[in-house]
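lol so apparently i was supposed to do this last week
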Amino acid sequence: MKKVILSGMRPTGRLHLGHWVGALSNWVKLQSEYDCFFMVADWHALMSEYHDPSVVSSSIIDNVADWLCFGIDPKKSVVFVQSELEEHLELYLILSLVTPLGWLSRCPTFKEQVKQLKDKDINTYAFLGYPVLQASDIILYKAHAVPVGEDQLPHLELSREIIRRFHFIYKKEVFRQPQPLLTSASRLLGLDGRKMSKSYDNFIALDEDEDSLKRKITSMITDPERIKKNDRGNPDICNVYSYYGIFAPQKKDEVRNWCTQASRGCKECKLIFAQILNEFIGPRRAKKKELLKKKDYIFDVLAQGKKKAKAVASATLGEAKKAMGL
Ligand code: TRP
Ligand code: SF4
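anyway here it is w/ tryptophan bound
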């Protein structure tokens, strides 16, 4: 029997290379080793995008198309949309019954996000409950492990505490304690060197077209001391070099060479990289275009996913209610 994994992504816009490096590439690898549930966390997205829900609804199919084109295999994994299963909300409320308010208001991610996302009014009742809904997602599928980034660790710990409290109050062990599965450390910065993010407009989308991909890569800042082509460069402080490291590690030595020897200029170095990246993205972009022409296949994947997810989620919800004597 394989162990179970659940992870989710919030549909808040186009997916970009940051999503690929930070989560999706890891999901693809995990599929052969685990029974995976990959969820579109649309309720979680609405907690910050409620002013304009159309962003969320239009991102769902788009994001799932990216997942499928970048290697999520619906024959191996269950792909579904959170809001299509009411079990998530029902367990969310049940868990809310036993979750002390202080655990949520003291949660470091809550405090940080309210401060950071100043343009979004997320000082709401629903946003406070964000980690409780996340706990519900994880618990419903009895996930052994949850692949998360460092930033999500407090949420996972909170899930574990909520589970302990439920078990303590109802004197029955119905849920499984999930373990974090930390995503490997490689990190991709945005085009401007800050975190890659939609709100900084410094990203390359997973379906970026060839021209804008080229334009974006050539606009990247390189070693600022390398002004003329025969200035020797320092790849270790160049973001383009770190992109090579992630997408073409076999070329790193060669790039280091031409950079430090000043045998190729930055423009050329960037154009070579843009081509490498386009070779990676191109076929997936074309496949996505095909999928989105007639969305039947995607709808079919989500319908199958819903069915499989429902069987597991409704059983767990039943056990939870039984433990409470409902
Ligand atoms: N909070 C996660 C994020 O922002 C998304 C998410 C929702 C999730 N439910 C989850 C991740 C359950 C892991 C498990 O990335
Ligand atoms: Fe960066 Fe390439 Fe220019 Fe070196 S040659 S500074 S690695 S872009």
